[in-house]
Each structure stands twice: as structure tokens, then as C-alpha cells.
Amino acid sequence: MASAAATALTGGVTPPAGTREQILSTARELFVSQGFAATTTRELAERLGFTKAALYYHFRTKDDLLKALAAPFVDQMRALVTGTPLSASPAARRALLAAYIDIATADLDLIRVLTQDPSVNHRPATAEHTDLSRRLLQLLSGQDEPDTTARARARAALGAIWAGLVHAAPDDDPTAVRAATLAAACGALGVPAPSTRPSLVNRAAAR
User: Fold this and answer.
1) What is the pLDDT of residues 130-183, one digit of tens each?
2) Domain 4-60 falls in which CATH fold?
3) Which parts of this chain does the entry mark as a DNA-binding region (predicted)?
């Protein structure tokens, strides 16, 4: 609910329904195309045809916008890391990598902003994502207190995921990209990759 101060700025007039979604959609486009730091609230208001007061009714700062945009990703990350028990099992850690890849590919452009844009680092809006990422590294290592090698392998696995997804060409087959990225991340982590060979049952059925 908007504050009394925000309502006062709009002359007591509540902006029409759907305004919040318009703001988020346009902010997302600008953050993705030119970066968080280069986007101003004035530019956003002008792009939308709003006054800054109307923008302020919903979001008082750019950090509020960033937090709202990041919320679905952070919610999924939280569910993943809090719902996954610590395990040294290679199969469990491979499944964790696969689940993280699926979360990342849901809105890859926005995830690029959250993870690759230097101006987003250490902002209040992404503080929880930073904490969740630390826990993800622990889970990938299979250790509550990972040693240097385990930490390096976990970071390398996440790096392989971002290299595979972020730098994929627009015409690359998404299924092939996902499989290759998961295999690369598994290799970096030191766990067996999923088998791509047809099973005996499948080969028998194909005859």
C-alpha cells in the first residue's frame, strides 16, 4: 500500500490500475539495455509519460524497483537453498546444479543484470541474493565449511553456468545449451555429468 506522503505527491489521486506493472516492465527494459547505474528515475518517468510523483507513488527509489524485479528470482533461490539439505552426494549436487540452471534460464536477461552488472553489487536490494549465493556455494561443495579446493570448484561450476547461458547465441538450441552447460558445471564441480547415452531399454525399444 502506498504511503500518505506518496499519495500527497500525486495530489491525492491514485494512479490507475496496472501502473505498477508498467513501471516494472519499463524499468526492466532499461536496466537490461543500458544498466542499472545509467538508468535514472527521470528517464523512466519520461519513458512512461508519468510525472516523477506518479512513479514515487509506487517506488520511492531505484533500489525499490530493483528489489521488486528481483523478487521472483530471489524467492526461487530461497526455496532452493532452504529446501536442499547439505549433502556430499554427487547425485544431490548435480541435481542442485540442474535446478539452479532452470531458475537462471527463467529470465536470463534480468539475471544478467543481477549477477553481471557491477553497479548492482552490494546494493541493499540484492543483499539477500548475496547471502543465498553464499549458501549455494556451501551446498555445491557439500561442506558447511568448504576448504579452498571445494570453494574454488563450486565457484568454477557457477562460472561455467553463467558462461554457458549468458554467452549462448540467440539461435542456439536451448535444450542443447542446457545439457552442455550442466555437463560443464558438473565437470568443474568434480561430479559425474548426466549420461547422454541411450539406456539399454531405449535401445531395445528402438530396434
Assistant:
1) 899 999 999 999 999 999 999 999 999 999 999 999 888 889 999 999 999 999
2) Arc Repressor Mutant, subunit A (1.10.10)
3) 40-59
